[in-house]
Write a structure and sequence with these properties.
The complex is a heterodimer of chains A (about 180) and B (about 120). Helix content of chain A is about 35%, strand content about 40%. By secondary structure, chain A is α+β, with helices and mostly antiparallel strands. Chain A has two domains: about 120 residues, Alpha-D-Glucose-1,6-Bisphosphate, Chain A, domain 4 (2-Layer Sandwich); about 35 residues. Chain A is globular. Chain A starts with a helix and ends with a helix. Chain B has two domains: about 80 residues, Arc Repressor Mutant, subunit A; about 45 residues. Chain B is about 75% helix and about 10% strand. Chain B is built from five helices and three strands; from the N terminus they run ααβααββα. In chain B, strands 1-3-2 form a three-stranded antiparallel beta sheet. In chain B, a hairpin with a 2-residue loop joins strand 2 and strand 3. The longest helix of chain B has about 45 residues. Classes of the chains: A alpha+beta (about 180), B mainly alpha (about 120). Chains A and B meet through strand 1, strand 2, helix 2, helix 3 and helix 4 of A and helix 5 of B.
Chain lengths: ~180, ~120
């Protein structure tokens, strides 16, 4: 009987992900999950569960390997890519591991210094509010992250432009 | 968040139109499109007092069209709109990345909940 009540959909509590730049150096992501904190925490701390959601299919990039030794001082290493020839690694170590409530780790792949991610899990009425806080080493480092993604896009467009020019040129030449 | 962003964007848009209604301010934007300049440079170029130029730059800054930065005693002005738009676009892509991660995490959470329920039942039996 209880189980049925629990599984009733509640439109007022639709999951919603928010992102905010809290300051020059900070980004904050929030989301509420329909489950107790111990379960959400488990999904963040067991590598075999983590790898099931960390690289969503929609991004088109897959997680090639996912190693995480989730305990204070333990390290993690996530490797992404389309195939083994072109990969990108994210790595660092866990600074705090407080079961069911708090995780803190470093992100050491960046060039501008070490960023620190803090995730808190707050349970209320069977649901869990998750707050992910990223502290970047400097305003310049966070700006570079933002600009870097933008740079990646313009590079793609430049390549497309070049391709179009080449195609246009060869067509003119052929006709 | 999204609501706040839309409201913020709308407020900015109103402020942008107000800022662009003045010929001097349009000239200042054009000038800053060529190169960054200090308020003193701009005042000279537009034959204005420093106070007058400060007011114009203030209006442009409020609208997010110009950003200013004080280095030592000099306040440098540069175009701000592009950066703002880039940051907003990046934030939305970043939000979408987390949103799709979390949608998949929902499934993991559901599965763990079901498993816990079954295990609990087994333990009671």
């Amino acid at each position: 009987m209880d189980a049925r009540r629990e599984s009733e959909p509640s439109p007022m509590n639709m999951p919603r992900t928010t992102v905010e730049r809290k300051s020059e150096r900070e980004l904050v992501v929030t989301r509420t999950f329909d489950g107790p904190a111990r379960i959400v925490f488990e999904a963040w701390t067991r590598p075999e569960l983590l790898e099931r959601w960390w690289a969503p299919k929609s991004t088109g990039v897959s997680l090639l390997s996912c190693e995480a030794d989730v305990r204070v001082g333990g390290t993690y290493r996530f490797v992404f890519g389309h195939d083994a020839s072109k990969t990108m690694a994210f790595f660092g170590k866990y600074l705090e591991v407080t079961p069911h409530s708090r995780l803190v780790w470093t992100n050491e792949e960046g060039e501008g210094g070490v960023a620190v991610t803090t995730v808190t899990f707050e349970e209320k009425g069977g649901k869990t509010l998750l707050v992910l806080h990223e502290l970047h080493p400097s305003k310049e480092a966070l700006d570079a992250v933002i600009a870097g993604m933008e740079g990646g896009m313009s590079e793609t467009f430049e390549q497309l432009d070049e391709l179009l020019v080449t195609l246009g040129a060869s067509r003119t030449w052929a006709s | 968040m999204l609501n706040r962003m839309v409201q913020y964007a709308r407020g900015r848009l109103d402020a942008s139109f107000a800022a662009l209604s003045d010929a001097t301010r349009r000239g200042v934007l054009e000038q800053l499109g060529r190169e960054d300049a200090s308020i003193t440079d701009l005042a000279e170029k537009f034959h204005m007092t420093l106070t007058g130029m400060k007011k114009h730059v203030g209006v442009l800054e409020q609208a997010g069209l110009v950003i200013t930065e004080k280095v030592g005693r000099v306040r440098t002005c540069k175009l701000g709109l592009r950066r703002l738009a880039e940051e907003t676009a990046w934030m939305e892509r970043y939000r979408q990345l987390w949103a799709s991660r979390f949608d998949e995490l929902d499934e993991v959470v559901e599965e763990l909940k079901r498993k816990e329920k079954v295990d609990g039942r087994k333990k009671r039996e």
